Amino acid sequence: MNAAAPTADPAAATGGSGPASVAITVAYGFWIFLLSDIIMFSAMFASYAVLTPRIAGGPGPRELFELRPAGIETLCLLFSSFTCGLGVLAVEHRRMRMFFICFALTFVLGAAFLALELSEFSRLLAAGAGPARSAFLSAFFSLVGLHGVHIAAGLLWLTFNVAQIAVNGPLEFVIRRLGCFGLFWHALDIVWVGILTLVYLMGAR
Amino acid sequence: MAARVASYTAGLALALLLTAASFLVSKSGLIWAPGVPVGLAVLAVAQMGVHLVFFLRMSTGPDNVNNALALAFGVLIVTLVVAGTLWIMTHLNANMMPARALMEMSR
């Protein structure tokens, strides 16, 4: 090492192997965002748990929720998480055919999840159990609806980035964004595990 | 590449197993009824761990220290928010005078 200018060596300045690459810092920053998003969801979970008994003489979770569609939604989201991971891996290794197949599957499974959720919402609304019926239903629609809005935003994001790659080829920065999308999608699956357990499995017992 | 495919496949298999176990616990009388919520919570936390390790690929390796520390902080805040809310609201419910008694007092 050059003793005259020790700070010129990035390894000496940081005590490691130099500044982290863009891919690592972007993933770290996005991870911080995801954690803040999960903290927001935790407030929704807490209010749902507190408000579950407050049904104001209306229908409760046992009468309203059905386990079969919730189970199918869980499978949709789990498999779309799996294909999303494979798709990101494929585009990082420039396996373009596998990338498009995986992300098409991710989109279809995510859209199927959303369709099932919307059909459940319309079933509840038709039964007179809308968000204005009781504090319990307000909490239910805000918690599950917030997750659904995240899924819808994720589908838009996915479509946009896959179209960019289809038109412009596998650009480095788009691949990085798809990597962030993968983190987002896996985190939404984690939130859904909480919803399935707290809302559906504990509610429909 | 093969290592990551193996990780995703293992994660999928474990998550399917844990989901099936959750449905089994909630539907059948396999577990003593008052213990079912605890069992479901344990299975959910286990599945979240599986997602973190196999899908989000969290580890304690040297290039992952920042991510793991941020996750630890996030878990701390989530625990404080959820457990704190439940704790405070349960005590409020237990300590509040019933509405009818309150109205009679103010007469």
Describe the structure.
- The complex is a heterodimer of chains A (205) and B (107).
- Helices cover 78% and strands 0% of the residues of chain A.
- With 205 residues, chain A is an all-alpha fold.
- Chain A has a single domain (38-204), classed as Four Helix Bundle (Hemerythrin (Met), subunit A).
- In chain A, α2 runs parallel beside α7, α4 packs antiparallel against α7 (172-201) and α5 (96-126) packs antiparallel against α6 (135-168).
- The longest helix of chain A has 34 residues, at 135-168.
- Chain B is mostly helical and 107 residues long.
- In chain B, 79% of the residues lie in helices and 0% in strands.
- Chain B has four helices and no strands.
- Chain B has helices spanning 2-27, 36-55, 65-95, 99-105.
- The longest helix of chain B has 31 residues, at 65-95.
- The radius of gyration of chain B is 21 Å and the shape is elongated.
- In chain B, 18% of the residues are buried.
- The model of chain B has no long low-confidence stretch (mean pLDDT 87).
- The interface between A and B is large, with 40 and 41 residues.
Query: How many domains comprise the coordinates of chain A?
Result: 1
Gyration radius of chain B, to the nearest Å?
21 Å
The CATH class designation of chain A is Mainly Alpha
- Percent helix among the residues of chain B? over 70%
Assembly annotation: heterodimer
Count of DSSP-assigned helices of chain A: 7
